[in-house]
Amino acid sequence: MDLPTVEAMVPGDEADWRPGDCWLAGGTVLFSRPQQGVRRLRDLTVLGWPSLAAADDEGRPGLDIAATCTVATLARYRPPARWPDLAVAIRRCCDAFLASWKIWNVATVGGNLCAALPAGPMISLAAAFDARCDVRRLSGERRLVPVDAFVVEPGVAALQPGEYLHAIHLPERELTGRIAVRRASLHPLGRSAAFVTGHLDVESGRLRLTVTAATPRPVTVSVPAPTAAASLVDMVDAQVSAEGWHDDVHGLPAWRRHMTLRLVEQVRADLLGAAR
């Protein structure tokens, strides 16, 4: 879609922030609908951020995924053996885009998070590993925001005017854990209606389940691993019901609830089976 109100495109680090400025990375969401009031595009892709980098910033080891990293680049990543389930989790989440290779080569990880859509698969991936969003300002100020707080509501991310998403940090300890992913949609090539990821901490044995797609924003429940199936399902149901089940053309709330709770038990069984 043309953006007829845009008058100029400038580098993303242009110091002069003006009303009507808008960040540009892949642009697959930005150019998919009218953007009334946008006057300048601030191109983040020219800043040369490494797409993927092992991180040890301020004592926080792990993996940094640049906001400008494309889905195709992420899908090709081959992580080290000490992160046993990362490659599978990446592939399952990338496949949930149900998009052509053309989109994969342009769409960015950060753009998917900033779009803040319930079915955003990069949100699901980040939530699976309890990621932190590295949010920065042009002045150099920085803050780390948990992914479940970064997504405020459908279409709204926790970014103030002049702030941008620089990277998504996956902590080392989360990367060494075991991951299980389950997804449901109304039809095989449909948008995700329920997406459940599970993380088993290999040191503490603690199990964390995160629900996305079926909810307006990520919802997480953390329990000791041996928790009984019925108890875990009840806990997830209570937690999500307090937030509310998402309702749109891709699935009614009652159906999303039914599928999510079914996936919760499947993820629990997958992770406990892997632990054994």
TrEMBL record:
Q: Which SUPFAM superfamilies match?
A: FAD-binding/transporter-associated domain-like (SSF56176)
GO MF annotations, alphabetized: FAD binding; oxidoreductase activity
Judging by the UniProt lineage, the source's domain of life is Bacteria
Where in the numbering of this chain does the FAD-binding PCMH-type domain appear?
Answer: 1-175
Q: Which InterPro entries match?
A: Diverse_Substr_Oxidored, FAD-bd_PCMH, FAD-bd_PCMH-like_sf, FAD-bd_PCMH_sub2, Mopterin_DH_FAD-bd
Q: What is this protein called?
A: CO or xanthine dehydrogenase, FAD-binding subunit
Origin species, per record, is: Micromonospora echinospora
